[in-house]
Amino acid sequence: MAGDGDRGAGEPSLVRPYTLTAGRTDAQVELALEAAVGVVAAVPPPRWPSTDVRCQILALCARRPSVAEIAAHLSLPLGVARVLVGDLVVQGYVQVHATLGEADTVDARRELIGRTLRGLRAL
């Protein structure tokens, strides 16, 4: 799963999406579009080139973005982002955080909805 060269943020990828996922269309784990994804700190970083899309996802996950935000930031189709994030979860590099619980405030719910909508609009 190599990256797609030296493209800048927001530029369309020249690599076909199925190449990034080895033809897979389903994530190995259940991932909601609004699910926050964070880096697992105890795991040593992989030795992938910085241009590898997986490295780019890991760099974004330091801010705990949603799956939709990852797709938007990297100009990836949502399905491709879900497969790649799912791979990183299975490999132990990232973890998916609960989106909302019973104790969350109305403001937290609005913020989540807003972030998800911004990510989806950016796609």
From TrEMBL:
<dbReference type="Pfam" id="PF05331">
    <property type="entry name" value="DUF742"/>
</dbReference>
<protein>
    <recommendedName>
        <fullName>DUF742 domain-containing protein</fullName>
    </recommendedName>
</protein>
<dbReference type="InterPro" id="IPR007995">
    <property type="entry name" value="DUF742"/>
</dbReference>
